[in-house]
């Protein structure tokens, strides 16, 4: 008997979608310029699954491939209103020109729209981002006061632009590495810590708390700890709010999640994987601080273990030496360059090498990731989904998972999970690629 899928009843994407972003820097302004240009038919949203992706439905013999945005009710780009916070006063236009990711000829056609996006005063603590200092910073008697100021900002933004619903996405700098403490164990202790100005409450957690209290989905685009603690996860579940993170998967780690599944599938051993990067944008400057780099390093290091599974294949991967370096090099700007040296071995233990030199554009790769996460998280909210959205792991270096589970980092497993979740939401049959109908005359799922 054919399985009956309940699917999800999804509220339509009516009205305006407010997108509030802590951090109006290179990635954000690249996203803004791209979306605004796409609205005018001046640019294609390449790399975006929500805008250009197609998904197979039913059997292969049916040849049903439809756009993702026709399968599920994705918000229209014309209905998005952007806003945000930054420690610098530059408008989105000024920030885009300073970031030098895009050529001025691609910024100028949307200059007026970008100029109208002026950052609100930000929550900031130099102890967590030591390499930056800005003047556009909130002052308050404690961190609860700062969170309440953020909530007032959100309310004013909604009223000013007649916003129907909101998504918040962190695109600010990587905070110094830290782990959950006792104050993160439940929401009462967390709120008390905010009132007491506890240093264990980070700026990003002040933003996340404000969003979740207002039942606004929160996306963490950086590697540091934010919503992945019991206090904020409980708040998200209590208020039926989706959260996801962490750390946008773009350049070098994207390549690892493409290559490593191939090595593991073909049972090729890996003895060493050395990775190094140079970049000269604000992210590179921040990561020049050892504590901020540690947050990034932890995020990037965990990828290979969960894909290669050294506990299952100790003879192939137990002794894998994995090293990562990131170096700040101002002349390169946002055009990051990464090198990977991979030492592998195969039949009869003969050694081989693979070398990769990826000259990528960090913000160009991150912008469509950020757009998809915003639109898919809004979709999840309208579908009544809450808590960790593991089906969006496809976009993250260090995906959030429920306690007791390991993250799935295989890009292709992540893609299948995301596509099947979309099929489920649309009340379509899931696809498992068994092909059993060919052999046993049964219906392929």
Give the helix tally: 17
Contiguous low-pLDDT stretches (5 residues minimum) are 1-5
**Rg over CA atoms:** 22 Å
The overall number of domains is 2
- Could you describe the largest sheet, including whether it forms a barrel? 7 strands, parallel
Q: Roughly how many Å apart are the termini?
A: 12 Å
Q: Which features would summarize this protein structure in a list?
A:
445 residues, alpha/beta, Dihydrodipicolinate Reductase, domain 2, 4-stranded mixed β-sheet, 38% helix, 2 domains, Rossmann fold, 13 strands, disordered N terminus
Summarize the structure.
This protein is α/β, with parallel strands linked by helices and 445 residues long.
Question: What do you see in this structure?
Answer:
By secondary structure, the protein is α/β, with parallel strands linked by helices. The chain folds into two domains: 295 residues, NAD(P)-binding Rossmann-like Domain (Rossmann fold), CATH 3.40.50.720; 108 residues, 2-Layer Sandwich (Dihydrodipicolinate Reductase, domain 2). The protein is built from 17 helices and 13 strands. The protein has a seven-stranded parallel sheet, sandwiched between helices. Strands 10-9-11-12 form a four-stranded mixed sheet. It has a two-stranded antiparallel sheet with strand order 2-3. α10 links the parallel β7 and β8. It is globular and about 65 Å long.
Give me the secondary-structure topology.
Blueprint: E1 16-22, H1 26-39, H2 49-52, E2 54-57, E3 64-67, H3 68-71, E4 80-86, H4 92-99, H5 104-107, H6 111-115, E5 120-121, H7 143-161, E6 163-170, H8 187-195, H9 203-213, E7 218-220, H10 230-238, E8 242-245, H11 252-265, E9 269-279, H12 282-286, H13 290-308, H14 314-317, E10 321-328, E11 337-345, E12 351-359, H15 362-382, E13 387-388, H16 411-425, H17 436-440
Parallel strand pairs: 1-4, 1-6, 4-5, 6-7, 7-8, 8-13, 9-10
Antiparallel strand pairs: 2-3, 9-11, 11-12
Helix pairs in contact: 1-4, 1-15, 7-9, 8-10, 11-13
């Amino acid at each position: 008997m054919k399985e009956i899928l309940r699917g999800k009843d999804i509220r339509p994407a009516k009205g305006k979608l407010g997108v509030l972003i802590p951090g109006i820097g290179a990635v954000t302004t690249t996203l803004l310029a791209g979306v605004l240009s796409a609205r005018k038919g001046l640019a294609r949203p390449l790399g975006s699954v929500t805008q250009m992706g197609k998904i197979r439905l039913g059997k292969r013999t049916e040849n049903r491939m439809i756009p993702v945005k026709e399968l599920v009710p994705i918000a229209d780009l014309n209905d998005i209103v952007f806003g945000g916070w930054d420690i610098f006063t530059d408008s989105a236009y000024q920030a885009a020109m300073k970031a030098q990711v895009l050529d001025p000829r691609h910024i100028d056609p949307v200059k007026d729209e970008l100029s109208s996006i002026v950052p609100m005063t930000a929550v900031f603590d130099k102890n967590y981002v030591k390499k930056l200092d800005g003047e556009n910073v909130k002052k308050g008697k404690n961190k609860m006061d700062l969170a309440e100021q953020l909530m007032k900002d959100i309310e004013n933004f909604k009223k000013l632009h007649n916003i129907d619903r909101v998504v918040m996405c962190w695109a600010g700098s990587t905070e110094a590495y830290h782990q959950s403490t006792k104050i993160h164990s439940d929401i009462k202790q967390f709120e008390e810590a905010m009132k007491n100005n506890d240093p264990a409450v980070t700026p990003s957690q002040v933003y996340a708390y404000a969003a979740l209290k207002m039942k606004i989905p929160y996306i963490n685009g950086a590697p540091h700890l934010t919503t992945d603690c019991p206090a904020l996860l409980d708040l998200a579940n209590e208020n039926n709010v989706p959260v996801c993170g962490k750390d946008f998967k773009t350049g070098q780690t994207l390549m690892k999640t493409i290559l490593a599944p191939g090595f593991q599938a073909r049972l090729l051993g890996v003895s060493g994987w050395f990775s190094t990067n140079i970049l000269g944008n604000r992210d590179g400057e921040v990561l020049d601080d050892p504590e901020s780099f540690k947050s990034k390093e932890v995020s990037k290091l965990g990828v290979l273990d969960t894909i290669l599974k050294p506990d299952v294949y100790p003879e192939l991967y137990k002794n894998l030496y994995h090293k990562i370096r990131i170096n700040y090099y101002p002349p390169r700007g946002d055009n990051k360059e990464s090198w990977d040296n991979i030492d592998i071995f195969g039949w009869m233990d003969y050694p081989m090498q693979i070398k990769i030199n990826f000259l990528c554009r960090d913000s160009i790769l991150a912008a469509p990731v950020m757009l998809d996460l915003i639109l898919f998280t809004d979709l999840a909210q309208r579908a009544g989904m809450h808590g960790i959205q593991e089906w969006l792991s496809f976009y993250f270096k260090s995906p959030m998972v429920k306690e007791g589970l390991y993250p799935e980092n295989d890009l292709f497993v992540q893609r299948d999970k995301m596509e099947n979740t979309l099929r489920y939401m649309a009340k379509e049959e899931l696809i498992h690629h068994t092909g059993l109908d060919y052999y046993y005359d049964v219906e392929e799922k």
